[in-house]
Amino acid sequence: MTIRLFVLSIAIPMVLLVARPAGAQDPPPRIGPYVVDLHGSVPRFPQDPQLASSRGMSVAELPGSGLGLQIGVHLYPIRWRAVTFGIGGEFATGRARQTPTAAQTSLRPATERFTTVSPQLSFNFGTGNGWSYISGGLGPSTWAVVPEGQEGFGADSETLKTINYGGGARWFMKTHLAFSFDVRFYAINPGTPFFAGTLGSPRTTLLVIGAGVSLK
């Protein structure tokens, strides 16, 4: 289901951009030369039994979906035929909180956080009035899941190698202001065990959907 969502999120904007009529007199502007993205986001944290076990938790205590922020800066130095190549970077962070109801007396509150910083390479299609893109990068991340009562443990400060890939689109309503969205997957390396005799956090893929504005 997530792969289908990703494909649709890339294909639909590309079709719309290709179908957009050019101006009667002036050619459309080129993509770039730079853009700054400011997105609110919804990270979908996994409900994984191995993840829960690595923190001494039950699956029901894992927070699940949360809220976050994405900030990106991209430059567009090269154009070749229909493709404009971009280079840049992204900072992304997200947080989810699970608070049991009064009837769930056996469950503890828990907080889950994800933060990453990564360079990115992008392939962009369209014009300066609006374009779609696919992009990816590799960088460090921290992925912390902390149940109430274990805040003193430092294992969640571990840095994990993370590959990100995804795509989105930008529509410029004004010369320097656009609505934009991004659908991104973060493939996170396994973590080391937190407790003796348990497995570490599993290799996982985190889905983050973001939307907001872009400035150029």
What's the arrangement of secondary structure elements?
Blueprint (H helix, E strand, L loop, with lengths): L1 H18 L14 E11 L4 H6 L12 E14 L2 E16 L11 E18 L2 E18 L11 E16 L2 E12 L15 E12 L1
Could you characterize what this model shows?
The protein is mostly beta strands. It has a single domain (2-19, 32-100, 108-215), classed as Porin (Beta Barrel), CATH 2.40.160.20. 11% of the residues lie in helices and 54% in strands. It contains 2 helices and 8 strands. It has helices spanning 2-19, 49-54, and strands at 34-44, 67-80, 83-98, 110-127, 130-147, 159-174, 177-188, 204-215. It has an 8-stranded antiparallel β-barrel with strand order 1-2-3-4-5-6-7-8. A hairpin with a 2-residue loop joins strand 4 and strand 5. The radius of gyration is 20 Å and the shape is elongated. The two termini are 33 Å apart. The relative contact order is 0.22. Mean pLDDT is 86; it is low at 1-8 and 10-24.
In short:
This protein has 216 residues and is mainly beta. The protein contains two helices and eight strands; from the N terminus they run H-E-H-E-E-E-E-E-E-E. It has helices at residues 2-19, 49-54; strands at residues 34-44, 67-80, 83-98, 110-127, 130-147, 159-174, 177-188, 204-215.
